[in-house]
Amino acid sequence: VVTITGTPSVSGTFTYTVTITGGCTGGTNSATGTLQINANQIELDVNSAPANQTICLGTSLVDIKYNTIGATNATASGLPSGVQGIWNNNVFTISGTPTVTGTYNYTVQMTGGCVSSNIATGQIIVNDNLITLISGSGTDNQTVCVNTTISNIIYSTRGASGASFSTLPSGIVAVWRNDSVIISGSPTALGTYNYVVTMVGGCPGSNNTISGVISVLANNTITLISAGNANREPCIGVAISPTIRFQTTGSTGAIVTGLPAGVNGSWNSNLVTISGAPTVTGTFTYTVTMTGGCTGGTNTATGIIVVKPNNTIARSSAVGTDAQTLCINTALTNITYATTTATGATVSGLPAGVTGNWSANTFTISGSPSVSGTFTYTVTMTGGCTGGTNTITGTITVTPNNTIALSSAVGTNAQTLCINTAITNITYTTTTATGATVSGLPAGVTGSWNANTFTISGSPSVSGTFTYTVTMTGGC
Questions:
Q1: Binning pLDDT at 50, 70 and 90, where does residue 11 land?
Q2: Cβ distance 71 to 109 under 8 Å?
Q3: How many CB atoms are closer than 10 A to CB 205?
Q4: How far apart, in whole angstroms, are the C-alpha atoms of residue 182 and residue 192?
Q5: Rounded distance between C-alpha atoms, residue 57 and residue 83, angstroms
Q6: Per-residue pLDDT tens for 132-189?
Q7: Which residues are registered as beta bridge partners of 394?
C-alpha cells in the first residue's frame, strides 16, 4: 500500500507518479494522479496607486487596488472616515475622501475560499494645516499704548512650511519657526489693525488662516483751553477768574494737587476745571495728573496760583500825627501811612494847602493849610486786593491866627481921668489865644484875661500919660 500524506506548503496543480520498485516489473509498474492545492492570495495591482499614501484632508485618495485569488470577498479595517474599500470580481479597491486627519494603518482581509493568513496592509496619512492660539486667552486681541510692548502673541501651526503676515502695525514683527508663529514688539503707529496670519506650504484649506486685532492708542494729552495762561493771581476770598480749564484726551480721569484751600479741581467728560475762592494767601504750584489711558507722553500740566492778601494801611509816622492841631499857614508835621499790595492811594477831605502822595507803598500827607477848620480826611487805597479794610481816616484841625478887638464902648481905650478915680473898664475880646498880658498901665490899674475877654480896671494912683499894650499869649 502506498500512502501519500502531509501538508502542502505551496499552492498549485501537482501531477504525481507512483513507481513500484523490486519484484517483477513486466506489468504496469507505475500509477499517476493529480493534487490541486488551492490558497487565497492578495497582491497590489501593478497599475494601482501606492499602498502607502500621504494626502491632505478633503482631498480624494488615489485608488488603491489589490488583486485577490481564491477569496469570495474582502474587507478592510483601519481606514480613515470618508475612505472605504469595495471587493468586486477579485479586485479590492480602496477609495474616497478622508474627513479626519491622522495616520491610519489599514488591513485588507480576504474572506471565503481557503482560510489563511494572507492579508495586505498599508498606511494612509491624512494631513491638514492647522493654526491655534497658544499664548494666553485674549492675547490675540490687544489694546496697547503707542510705543508700549505688546504681550507676545503665539500660534502653533501644523502642516505648514511657513507663514505670511499682513496688516500688522509698524514696530510689530512676526516670525515663523519650528511650527510656531510669534508676534511681538512695540507699535509706533496709532490705529486699529486687523492682522491676518496665513500658513504657507502643506495642505491648503479653511483652517489655513487666523486673524486678530491690535488696537494702538495715543498717549494722553492735556491742553489749556481757558483764556490766558495756567497761572492766576486772585485776592484772598475772591473766586479765581477766569476759571482754569484743561482739555484731556485718552485719560479716564485726572487729579489736581497743590491747590490753595478753597480752590478745587475736578475732571468730567475730558475736561479739568479748577475754580473756587482761596481762603489762604501764598504761592501755590498745582499739578494736574491724568489717570487711566496711556501715560507714556506728557501726562501732567502745572500752573501757579498766587493768592494775594487784602490791602493793608497803617500809620507809620509818630503817634498823634494823624490828629494834628496847627495854626493856619503853618507847615504840617508830615503824616505817613505804610500800605501793602495796593498799587496806589488817594486822599479826600484835606484842607487847602495840604496834599497827599503815594509812592513805594508809602502815603505821605504834607503841606501848610491855608484855611482854618476841622478836617477829617480819608486815605483810600487803589489797586491790589480791596476786600479788607481799604481806607483809613485822620483829623487835621487848623486854628486861625489870634485876634483881639475893643469890646467896651468906643473911646474907653483912650480915657482922661483924675488921679485915684476909677477908670471905666476897658475890655477886649480875643480869639484862639489862651491868655493875654498887659504892659504900660499906671499904678493902681491892672489887666486880666478870662474866657477870651481881657479886662483893664482900677484907679490910677499916679498922674501922667500912660500908653499900654495888651499882648495875647498862646494860640496862633
A1: low
A2: no
A3: 16
A4: 19
A5: 11
A6: 999 999 999 999 999 999 999 999 999 899 999 999 999 999 999 999 999 999 999 9
A7: 377
